[in-house]
Amino acid sequence: APQQEKDGFHLVSNKDTQWHDRTQAQNFKDIRYHTSDEGIAKITINRPEVHNAFRPLTIQELRTAFALAQDDVSIGVIILCGEGPNAFCSGGDQTLRGEGGYDDGTEPVPRLSVLDLQVQMRRCPKPVIAMIAGYAVGGGHILHMVCDLSLAADNALFGQTGPKVGSFDAGYGSSHMARIVGQKKAREIWFLCRLYNAKEALEMKLVNSVVPLAELERETLRWCRRILALSPTALACLKAAINADEDGQAGIMELAGQATRLYYLSEEGKEGRNAFVQRRPPAFRSIPSSR
Ligand code: S0N
């Protein structure tokens, strides 16, 4: 029988999650990629020796993993996390900062490619949940802010370090943060570069919930199962709608893309295509739902 929550909500599954490890098949070095039969993809930054700092290779692999999860019709929700209990992600790997970007020899020029990843995560029509244990700092803090939901362990620490180490994110890292925590708090976070604990992060609405470290994955899976029981199209349209307000024309395009997809599925949309293929005038007005 399906598991029932206290509020009467039926979860999608009540069995323990069996993870399938897709890391080797994808030849990933810096990340791990797991999927579950329930419909969850888990993407783990796997550089614990540097608190899961990312280098260009890490970003390339994260982008591939997000594309895999987005295109996999069996997947309904994506978890982003860091390996181990000490860090979600500590941002760009400072030992690899070259001229004008990060350089690990895997790309022809130094890159700031985490920005492309942020956009990809925003555009992904599936909910993305940050599961945060330990440090979420610098570009790592921005990655969790770009996720749709953030669940934190009680050992989590949040903050920006850019002005301390000679970097800044003037994109989502600034404006999206200000929308979440407000103008004054965003300026405090960037201008003072201090760390905030999980309770403080919850108070400033940076995270959705805080749980004991030992409970973090279980609670995240519970949130995933509730999401999996809901309408994927409704969630995709809502994500696009919430983004649209902030993302300007690109955001409206996202929402418009969902509208066009639904129109393609309608009798009216199909009639236009069929009429063209069958070389006849379209009979749009004969379709009741077209009025
Ligand atoms: C996280 C901190 C506070 C933890 O301190 P703690 O507990 O004292 O641990 P440490 O001993 O410092 O760390 C353990 C080991 O991990 C290494 N390490 C940690 N973070 C990094 C890092 N970011 N890069 C490389 N190595 C890291 C330590 O060196 C140590 O190694 P060992 O054991 O060998 O000594 C503390 O570690 C800390 O402050 N870390 C640095 C945080 C930071 O400044 N991050 C970078 C911030 N900037 C960005 O992320 C910018 C990138 C970005 O997102 C961006 C934005 C806009 C446009 C483009 C970009 C882009 O860059 O792509």
Task: Explain what this protein looks like in three dimensions.
This protein is of the alpha/beta class and 291 residues long. It has 10 helices and 13 strands. It has helices at residues 56-71, 114-123, 139-146, 162-165, 172-181, 183-192, 198-203, 216-228, 232-264, 267-277, and strands spanning 19-21, 31-36, 40-45, 77-82, 87-89, 97-98, 101-102, 128-132, 135-137, 149-153, 157-159, 196-197, 209-211. The chain has a 7-stranded mixed β-sheet with strand order 1-2-3-4-8-10-13, with helices on both faces. Strands 5-9-11-12 form a 4-stranded mixed β-sheet. Strand 6 (97-98) and strand 7 form a beta hairpin. Helix 1 (56-71) packs parallel to helix 2. The longest helix is centred in the C-terminal third of the chain and has 33 residues, at 232-264. The chain is globular. It starts with 18 loop residues before the first strand and ends in a 14-residue tail after the last helix. The model has no long low-confidence stretch (mean pLDDT 95). The structure holds o-succinylbenzoyl-N-coenzyme A (S0N). O-succinylbenzoyl-N-coenzyme A binds at residues 50-51, 53, 90-95, 102, 112, 114-115, 135, 137-139, 142, 161-162, 165, 167, 169, 173. Residues 50-51, 53, 90-95, 102, 112, 114-115, 135, 137-139, 142, 161-162, 165, 167, 169, 173 line the site of o-succinylbenzoyl-N-coenzyme A.
